Amino acid sequence: MNKAKPTILVVNDDGITAPGIKVLLEAMSEIGRVVVVAPDSPQSGMGHAITIGKPLRLDKVDLYEGVEMYRCSGTPVDCVKLAVNKIFKGQKPDLCVSGINHGLNNSINVLYSGTMSAAVEGAIEGIPSIGFSLDDYTLQADFSHCVKYVKELALQVLANGLPQATLLNVNFPNTPHIKGIKVCRQAAAKWAEEFDERIDPHKRPYYWLTGVFQLNDGGEDTDVWALEHNYVSVVPVQFDMTAHHAIPYLNNWKFNV
Amino acid sequence: MNKAKPTILVVNDDGITAPGIKVLLEAMSEIGRVVVVAPDSPQSGMGHAITIGKPLRLDKVDLYEGVEMYRCSGTPVDCVKLAVNKIFKGQKPDLCVSGINHGLNNSINVLYSGTMSAAVEGAIEGIPSIGFSLDDYTLQADFSHCVKYVKELALQVLANGLPQATLLNVNFPNTPHIKGIKVCRQAAAKWAEEFDERIDPHKRPYYWLTGVFQLNDGGEDTDVWALEHNYVSVVPVQFDMTAHHAIPYLNNWKFNV
């Protein structure tokens, strides 16, 4: 923490009017100077998408008294890029927090989640970053039991920093009876898609993406295990996707070309 | 390879009419039975986005003689999910190839790329998967020097398989004078955003995302180095994003909560 009052960028993927971001910006306002940049509409499942084919809008809005807020027409990752470039203008914030997401982003969901991708983008920019998510998809989600953990984790990251090119993925169980914080690895899992097939009024088929979470990992060191046992899960995430362990294997291949 | 004639799923992010996917499906038709599922419009930069808030369309089309093809209204990842569930119906293809992308997807671009995210989704589904990209963004790109490498890599993956939960990210330099194939790690880099700010006819500002590729890694074992020296770069990619090396560090933190 390089100054008395840190600057904190708050982003999310559920959109600027989501209850989860209000909880997060209020918690962060107790720690530092807060700047909020969030999508003008829900952007769940946008992953690491960026907007290339059309221009972006960025407008200052006045939703909560005394909070500097901007709504952005783009994706969660666009929000971070615009914040760094057009609002902070190269003066990086001390912390980037994303969420609190309405719905878990544990395990494989780190890839699909706009919340986590915004935090990943913060980390790529060299900003210590954390994504927060709660196991409740509804707009009526109760985030009150999360607040003290959110503040503690933000303070720890500000005080200690994070290993280079890493960030934190923090998920909360939907219970006030939390046993503590567990540092975990991402559980191996996938979504088994089902697709709800329907017929439109013009007799043409269309499909709704649905799915069942398929856990392939019983490890007690995973985020899924921690959440099932009422712990807050903290997974350190990296954005270097190289499978280093596979390099020697591939180097043994003989290419006939 | 579990049968005489393998089944190969071909996807991309530049859309079903892109020249790059035609080159790829033609190369794959020499190896096996090909099924193409591609977005009905360009989806560059969509990363691992999925479509949650609206339904999807999937229509059979007849673009090239004798090739089973479908256009999808969703993202590249949606294409893979729909292919696995509605076309293959659980009978997994033997290989999933994505591209050939018009433009490089080396280094950090693996995160933003719809081409690579489609291949990642294939790997999550347990299908041996490869993403292919060429260092030429134009629709006039010449892919002819890529074809023999595309076929060789597909055959090697079909014959040897890949380590569990990994896939390949293959990038081609834009030259016919290729020195060979190099297995690499992803170079550390980021996009330094600039944003082109303009004023619309109603006097309101808008922003075009632009950027400069900022390399922070001179390693001769990276994909950037290989491509600059006219090698085909092959990076093994994993989708477990856990920063395993950071877990002991975080376990030393004392939480005051």
In short:
Two copies of one chain form a homodimer. Chain A has 257 residues and is α/β, with parallel strands linked by helices.
Task: Describe it.
2 copies of one chain form a homodimer. Chain A has one domain: Stationary-phase Survival Protein Sure Homolog, Chain: A. Helices cover 25% and strands 28% of the residues of chain A. Chain A is built from 7 helices and 13 strands. Chain A has a 9-stranded mixed β-sheet with strand order 3-4-2-1-5-6-7-13-8, with helices on both faces. In chain A, a hairpin with a 5-residue loop joins β10 and β11 (205-208). The longest helix of chain A has 14 residues, at 147-160. Chain A is globular and about 60 Å long. Chains A and B meet through α2, α3, α4, α5 and β8 of A and α2, α3, α4, α5 and β8 of B.
What fold name goes in the CATH topology slot of chain A? Stationary-phase Survival Protein Sure Homolog, Chain: A
Shape of chain A: globular
Secondary-structure class of chain A: alpha/beta
- How much of the residues of chain A is beta strand, in percent? 25-35%
CATH architecture of chain A: 3-Layer(aba) Sandwich
Biggest sheet, spatial arrangement of strands of chain A: 3-4-2-1-5-6-7-13-8
Describe the largest sheet of chain A.
9 strands, mixed
Q: pLDDT under 50 segments of chain A (min length 5)? A: none
**Structure annotation, total helices of chain A:** 7
**On the 0-100 scale, what is the average pLDDT of chain A?**
96
N-to-C terminal Cα separation of chain A, in Å? 53 Å
Give Rg of chain A in angstroms: 19 Å
CATH class of chain A: Alpha Beta
Question: Roughly what percent helix of chain A?
Answer: 10-25%
Largest interface: chains, residues each: A-B, 80 and 80 residues
Any idea what the CATH superfamily of chain A is called? Survival protein SurE-like phosphatase/nucleotidase
Written as H for each helix and E for each strand, in order along the chain, the element string of chain A is EHEEEHEHHEHEEEEEEHEH
Total strand count of chain A, please? Answer: 13
Protein name (chains A, B): 5'-nucleotidase SurE
Domain Survival protein SurE-like phosphatase/nucleotidase (chains A, B): 8-192
GO molecular function (chains A, B): 3'-nucleotidase activity; 5'-nucleotidase activity; exopolyphosphatase activity; metal ion binding; nucleotide binding
EC number (chains A, B): 3.1.3.5
